[in-house]
C-alpha cells in the first residue's frame, strides 16, 4: 500500500492526485495527503509518475507496514521501481529494452 | 481538426455533454474503441472511473498478446489453441481477433510505440508493457480529439425506451454529477475482480455487467470464475510467469508433488491445482530455484514489478523460500461477461456495445483463462470493432434528435426497491460476496452442495441489496460497486451450479470430467429474476 509521501522530496505538482487510479490522494495546496489508503491497489504506478521519487508503496497489499521514511531513504528504495523500468523524473522510458520475449521463448 | 463533443448546458453543479459515442472505461479496450470511433468521424467522450493511462488490469502489468502474423500457419495456430478451450470457443472469432489485433499492433509500431527488438533487429510486437502502453494510448486518444473525463465513474445507462442514449455518473474529484447524451455507448468497464487485492483491481467491480443486464443485455461464461494466480503472500502481484521456474514446499519443508509424483517444478497453468490443494491444507512456500542465471536476469528486467515485493521485503526469491498465495481473479482472468451478438460487438440492445473484459471472452477462450495472451489481443480487437460499430450506429441514428423523455436505468445500489436501510452497507455486502466466491475450497474446487449453500446466501444478500442498499453523493459509487459485485457473484454461482460437469477452470469435485451435453455456452438474461439458457451455436447462426 501507499505509505509515504516525502515532504522533503515532493514538489507539490499534484500529479499523483491526478493519476492514481484508485483516487487515494487528496490535493491540499501543498504536499498531497493519503486520504483513502484502504483503497490503494498496490500498483506502484504513482511512484513512477512522480517527478521526484517522493512516493513509497510498500509491498503488503492488505494493510500498512508502518515503514519509516528514514528506512526507505537509507535502503535507497525511493524510485526503485521507476529505475527498474527505465522511467525517469516521471517520464516513460525503457520499454525498448524489455527482454520479456526471451522469457517467453524459455517458457 | 477532429470533431469534439459539445456542452449541452453548463451548470456548476452538473456536467452535461452530447456526443455521438460515449465510451465507458479507461483500459485498452476503451482506448481502442475511442480511437476507432473518432477515426470513423464520430464525436467521442470517454469517461473512466480512474485515470486513462493507469487504470484497469493492463496498466500495472506487462501483457503478452496473442500475436499471430498472417499466413497459412494461422489456421493451424488457431486450431491448436481452440483444442485447449474446452470446445466452447469459436474459431471464426479467434481468427478475426488475431487478424485485427495484429493490424493494431502494427498500427502501434507505426505510431512510434517503443517496442523492443529481437536479435536480428526486427521489432518484437507481441508484448506490451502496461504502464508505457497505456500512457501511449492516452496520448493517441487525446490526439484523436476525444473528450476524456478521468475520475468520472458511470453509475447507470440512459434509455429513450427504444435504445441506449447515454449514461450518467459522478465526477469523484469535482464532486459533481455528469450526464452524457450519446447515440451509442460502448461498455469497456473491464471485469469483476470481487475486490481481491490484485493489480488493477480497484475499479474492476463488474459495473458494466450490471448496467448491461439492466438494459436487457445477456451475459455468458459467468461460471468461469475459477481462475486464480500465484502471488507472494500478502502482495498484489498476481503474475504467474516467474512461478514457471519454482519449487513448492509445505511448512515442514516437504516438497509439493506434481501429478506424476515428482516434486513440482512449474506452478502455473494446470499445476495451479496441486498448489491450490496444498494451500487449502496449510501455508505454502516457494523458491524460484529452477531459473538459470540468464533467465533470472531477464525475469528481473522484463518483469520488474514481480520483484518489487521481494526487494522491499528483503527476500532473494531465487534462493530463499517465501510464502505464497493464490489470488482469486473473478472474471478478469476468468472468461465471463456481456454476451456479444454480432461482429461489431453489439449486445442486442440497440445502441449498446461491449468490448474487452466487459464482454464475454468465451467465444475466444472458452472454459480456460485468456490471461497471458488472448485477453489483451481481444481488448485490442474488440475495442476496435465496438468503436466502429458504435460510431456507425450513431451515424445511422444521426437524424434523430435526442428525445427529452430519457429514462435512467440504474436500480440496485441506486434506487432500492424498498426503503433504504443503514445496516445494509457496501463494505459488508462485498465481504459477504467474497466469502462465497473467493475461498479456494468453495470456488477453485466446487461441489453441488457447496454451490447450493453459496447460492442461498447470495440470494438472501441480493434481496437486501435490491431492496435496501442506497448511497448519497459520492457514496453512490460504492453502493453501485457493491450491487455490481453482488450481482456478478450471484450469476457466477448460479451458472456454476447449472453446469453439471467439470470443464476448464470450472472444477466440480462431485462431477469430474466433461459431459458432452454441456459442450455449449450458458447465457444469463435478467437481473432480479434471471434465467439461464444453453446457447448451442447461437453465435454461429447469427454470424452466417
Ligand atoms: C496482473 C495481470 C496481468 C495480465 N497479463 C496479461 C497478459 O500477459 N496477456 C493478456 O492477454 N492478458 C493479461 N491480463 C488481462 C488483461 O490485462 C485484460 O484482459 C485487459 O486489461 C482488459 O482490458 P479492458 O480495457 O477491457 O479492461 P481494463 O484494462 O481492466 O480496464 C477497465 C476500465 O474500466 C474502468 N471502469 C470500471 N467501472 C467503470 C465505471 N463504472 N465507469 C467508468 N469506468 C469504469 C476502470 O477504471 C478501467 O479503466 C492480465 C491481467 C492482470 C490483472
Ligand atoms: S507526484 Fe510526487 S512531487 Fe508531485 S505532488 Fe505527488 S508526491 Fe509530490
Ligand atoms: S500504488 Fe497505485 S493505487 Fe496505490 S496510491 Fe499508488 S497509484 Fe494509487
Automatic annotation (TrEMBL), chain A:
| Gene3D superfamilies linked | 3.30.70.20
Q: Which residues form the 4Fe-4S ferredoxin-type domain?
A: 1-30, 31-60
The record's listing under SUPFAM superfamilies reads: 4Fe-4S ferredoxins
Alphabetical list of InterPro entries matching this protein: 4Fe4S_Fe-S-bd (IPR017896), 4Fe4S_Fe_S_CS (IPR017900), Fe-S_Ferredoxin (IPR050572)
Residue ranges annotated as transmembrane are none
Task: Cite the Pfam families for this sequence.
Answer: Fer4_9
Q: Which GO terms describe its molecular function?
A: 4 iron, 4 sulfur cluster binding; metal ion binding
The record's keywords, sorted A to Z, are: 4Fe-4S, Iron, Iron-sulfur, Metal-binding
Domain of life, per UniProt, equals Bacteria
- PANTHER family, sorted: ADENYLYLSULFATE REDUCTASE, BETA SUBUNIT, BLR5484 PROTEIN
Full protein name:
4Fe-4S ferredoxin
Q: Which organism is it from?
A: Mesorhizobium mediterraneum
UniProtKB/TrEMBL annotation, chain B:
Query: Domain FAD-dependent oxidoreductase 2 FAD-binding spans what residues?
Result: 20-224
InterPro entries xrefs: FAD-dep_OxRdtase_2_FAD-bd, FAD/NAD-bd_sf, Fum_R/Succ_DH_flav-like_C_sf, Fum_Rdtase/Succ_DH_flav-like_C, SdhA/FrdA/AprA
Q: Which residues form the Fumarate reductase/succinate dehydrogenase flavoprotein-like C-terminal domain?
A: 444-515
Keywords on this record? Flavoprotein, Oxidoreductase
What is a single molecular function from GO for this protein?
succinate dehydrogenase activity
Gene Ontology cellular-component terms listed = plasma membrane
Coiled-coil stretches are: none
The biological processes this protein is annotated with in GO are: anaerobic respiration
What Pfam families does this protein's entry cite? FAD_binding_2, Succ_DH_flav_C
Q: Which domain of life is it from?
A: Bacteria
Q: Which PANTHER family match?
A: BLR3196 PROTEIN, SUCCINATE DEHYDROGENASE 2 FLAVOPROTEIN SUBUNIT
- Name of this protein: Oxidoreductase
Q: What lineage does UniProt assign to this protein's organism?
A: Bacteria, Pseudomonadati, Pseudomonadota, Alphaproteobacteria, Hyphomicrobiales
